Task: structure prediction
Amino acid sequence: MLQQTRVEAVIPYFLAFLAKFPTAAHLAAASEAEVLTAWAGLGYYSRARNLRSAAGILAADAPVSWEACMKLPGVGPYTAAALASISLGAVRAAVDGNVMRVVSRLTNDPSEISAPLTKRRFAEVAQTLLAPLRPGDFNQAMMELGATVCLPTKPRCLLCPVQKFCAAHSAGTQGSLPVKLGKVPARRLDLDLLVCWWEGRVGLVRRSAAESRLAGFWELPQKPADDVPAGSFQAEFTHQIVNDRFRVRVWVDESESRPGFSGACQWFSPAELVAIPVTTIARKALTATTGGKLMYPRGKRSRSVTQGV
Ligand code: SF4
Result:
């Protein structure tokens, strides 16, 4: 329940869930609808389905190792290490973001924390620190230390039980660790699109199957830079794709005199549009230039659209 969800939000659900399904056998015997109903409000419903499936496995044949825990539905290395160390005494460090932060400070390591090599090294350090006789207690202590004492922005070093082992505290660098590279600023790009109408149909071009992004989707043609006449400017909005921030200007041409486009475009009626994959930018543009009458059946309308000038 705690994956992607805050502890305070989880507590009432956790208590009600355990009251309804006190053992793995109770959970395994429940219908999926019952489990989803008890989970309603927590979101990420695949977790509930995985938990019920895992309960079926646990009720029949409880896992006896970290490797067996890894085979439970929805369980990755961190959860498997937590389960196996706490319930089976397996000597496995459970390493989440909190523990990574603690390790970066204990070792005063300025490596970029999201780099795969850094993650691997910090996980190895956590494994060497692990108390082999009490791995479950150690993992819970590390989680708790990261969550309540070694906080991201203001570590509470004066209260910290491991202060005397902490290299960052000795060096006074705890405030600058772990190192996270700042986000690369978004690229700003201009995009001028043409909405061309011909006999009640709009012209779209298909993205090539070789495109790395949105291959095979349909999009509006771009307005040629030397396009005269240019159609009429109708709308402007912004749209971000990963790190590219587009300023999209939409021009509408209803002159039905664009032989240049007839080869590149295919023409679709409004009814046909809902049955083909259309890019979000094209959907926004069609929505903006038809007053919302066309497109966006599957999503909400963009708030950033500036209607026609
Ligand atoms: S001494 Fe401070 S920086 Fe070091 S582990 Fe404790 S809380 Fe974190």
In short: The first strand starts at residue 187 and ends at 198. The first helix runs from residue 7 to 20.
